[in-house]
Amino acid sequence: MKYVACIEYDGTQYHGWQRLQEMPSVQEEVEKALSQVANHVVDVTCAGRTDSGVHGIGQVIHFESGAVRDEKAWRMGCNTNLPDDIVLRWIQPTLDDFHARFSATSRRYRYIILNHKIRPALLNDKVCWYRDKLDEHLMQNAASRLLGEHDFSSFRAAGCQAKHAMRELQAITISREGKYIYVDIVANAFLHHMVRNIVGSLFDVGTRRKNPEWFSALLALKDRTQAGITAPACGLYFVSVDYPAKFELPLKASPPSFGI
Q1: How many C-beta atoms lie closer than 10 Å to residue 237's C-beta?
Q2: Which of 50, 87, 169, 218 is the most exposed place for a label (fewest CB within 10 A)?
Q3: DSSP state of 74
């Protein structure tokens, strides 16, 4: 039987989602926990791999198992065997043609910026601290220029292994709640470091070092060296994934918020 499940994790202590030799990964911990419940080796496939230090709220996975377990047994058994910074939020049987990655129609990320003169202590690994004053309205003006289908080479990591840089950015919203700025991005798919590179370039616009029109130029240039820095991983959250209605998945996870 094929199962679909949702994983939440704090990525601080892991070298990303993907299983790696001799380095801790979220995938390795999830597979070990599921294998304990199934009493056989379980391999999982995720909706989107996240980098070292990136967090997940609604990471979706699928796997197959011949073990006879109800949903409660899977959930409770898996969570008993997972470390405290990873949890299985829900699990259910799914259709044979479901694929966590290829069935997805869009993915949503949220990037959280603490825009304040004093660095955080409790949220040190959960937000990106940026001390210089940022103008979120200028940032929104710039970000809106990325909407639609474009070649995002200027926002693509040098080591990105994607076959091409064409992606469809479906929504991007920058909002402020007191000292916190939230960058919400929805796309059909993302390139390696794409969100973090967009945010890093938005810093230049928010501080008025660049004007919003610069973002249009960056798309045309298709040159990563002309864009801004790569923003830190700690502020990035994989929030949710959209799938066709026929799969009847539970409600998507809500993005994290830290108030004012």
Answers
A1: 26
A2: 87
A3: H
Question: 2-103, what's its fold?
Answer: Alpha-Beta Plaits (3.30.70)
The three-class DSSP label of residue 102 is coil
- Is there a catalytic annotation at residue 51? yes
CA atoms within 13 A on the CB side of 42: 28
10, 43, 51, 204: which is the annotated catalytic residue? 51
Q: How buried is residue 38: exposed, middle or buried, by Cβ count under 10 Å (0-12/13-18/19+)?
A: buried
Read off the pLDDT of residues 59-76 as tens digits, 9 standing for 90 and up. Answer: 999 999 999 999 999 999
For the segment(s) 106-238, the CATH number from 3.30.70.660, 2.40.110.10, 1.10.3210.10, 3.20.20.70 is 3.30.70.660
Rounded to whole angstroms, the Cα distance separating 164 from 120 reads 38
Helix (H) or strand (E) run with residue 193 in it? none
pLDDT score for 165? 95
Separation of CA 119 from chain center: 23
215: left (phi over 0), alpha (psi -120 to 50) or beta: alpha
